[in-house]
Amino acid sequence: MGSPEMVAVTFVGADGSARQCSGTAGESLMRAAVRTGIREILAECGGIAACATCHCYVEPPWDQRLDPRSDVEEAMLEAALDPTEFSRLSCQITLSPALDGLVVRLPADQI
């Protein structure tokens, strides 16, 4: 069996600094961020969409490659600081080969 496919992701901080990491296809963006030390992704609920502390902004045109937000995600984003049309909970984004090169922006604050 081959190794899992890796998906490259660039996280852009509120200060404009870019950090690259990779996640495994099938892993949530939130898990990849936490595992690689992206401190702006707090992930207090552990990835069950029960908080908004993994809020991020998906850069266009990447936002068009994602599944639509669920009702639960929409409700949680109402609790996020400064949500926009590009806001997503990173726990609700599953990495896939189609997302290789994904760029997301991080908010200045989560709570």
UniProtKB/TrEMBL annotation:
The keyword Zinc does not apply. SUPFAM superfamilies: 2Fe-2S ferredoxin-like. Residues 7-110 form the 2Fe-2S ferredoxin-type domain. Keywords: 2Fe-2S, Iron, Iron-sulfur, Metal-binding. CDD domains: fer2. It holds the Pfam family Fer2. The lineage of its organism: Bacteria, Bacillati, Actinomycetota, Actinomycetes, Kitasatosporales. It comes from the Bacteria. Its cofactor is [2Fe-2S] cluster. This is 2Fe-2S ferredoxin. Belongs to the adrenodoxin/putidaredoxin family.
